[in-house]
User: Fold these one by one.
Assistant:
Number 1:
Amino acid sequence: MPKSKRDRPVTLSKTKKKGREHKEIIVNGIREAVEKHTSVYVFSFENMRNIKFKEFRNQFRHNGRFFLGSNKVMQVALGRSASDEIRPGIFKVSKLLHGDAGLLVTDMPKEEVESLFNAYEDSDFSRTGSTAVETVELKEGPLEQFTHEMEPFLRKQGMPVRLNKGTVELLSDFVVCEEGKPLSPESSRILRLLGIKLATFKLNLVCRWSPNDFELYREGLDLSDVETS
């Protein structure tokens, strides 16, 4: 009987080599982009949605490149201090690569970049585990937005419901989610059924580097926070 492919041993050295090669590709890609383009931006993101980000990224497809991934790898690519930076002053960018962040390398005029980032915001359904930004509560009574076929499913989500003459009825007030608390899988499903979008996918500029200057966008940051090497 032939052996299952899943039973074949995996050599860890090979997986480590592939991981190292992938990091090298990212490092080289960033360095090539920095050499080719005139400005480098750090941006942060909230509630990342891959499809929506791809749509936003398409606006720069002819004039720039985005990089997302390990902040540490991106820092290595740029240089983490004045002694190993690839362009003068660009180590300041590395110091602001933390948390949910990415790089944009482009020749687009800064006013246009700022306009595109500031204007972009898109609502979406919250995912399990995300923090509810507001409390959603349903009041006792008929839930006419749901068909009678939905009643068993709603009960499985923990909602106190019954069918009353073919109409789904909520037997008591029900809190779907509470502000500041993580969403359960059931809460996430109910919000989706209700059509309530609590998540906002947003991109925020943090800083901009060019050969001639360095600019901070985020409030609360000071040049002294990034100038020490």
Number 2:
Amino acid sequence: MELCGNDAVYSYASAMFVQARIPPEKVQYAVIGTGGCELLATLVSCVVIERVGRRVLLMGGYCLMTCWGSVFTAALCLQSSFPWMPYLAMSCIFAFILSFGIGPAGVTGILATELFDQTARPAAYMVCGVLMWTMLFLVGLGFPFIMEGLSHFLYVPFLCVCVCAAVYTFFFLPETKGKTFLEISEELYRLNFPGWSQSPMWRGPEVVQSTEL
């Protein structure tokens, strides 16, 4: 989630708003608007997550982020050729953040609760937390060098991560909406070990409540 480029968007938003000829004294309010977009998208995700499902929101979010990131890269390359390209790039920033809030931001945090039983859940959350803050540190540290080295193509590495995340979700991540942990475990086992007929060993309670929030 931290390598998909959303935090890098925040780092680059101010420069893009200035490029779009927004008065410098109002750029800070536009940047606050990017945070408002993510908050709005997260609220929408909370409403639709039980209707659409986690898997669809994750894949859809990463696919939309790939789409808007590609348009953003094209707008950066053509911003000197057309006067309206900076406005298109600014729109892509908001669309990218909205896609992130609806998909990965709203779903990723609850997956550890639904994919791991109570025995493994603390370790899973610990690994998730360490990975999240480590990747966030690396992105914040390395993004200025990426921006300097790749110029207009600075988001291509993040787009590759989004594509890989969407493909991984499609092939290996089961849908957890409204299912018991045993059902999720069996589907996860079937997706990751399609050639094996033996079912996973489950040593939990006989009756497991649904994961529906």
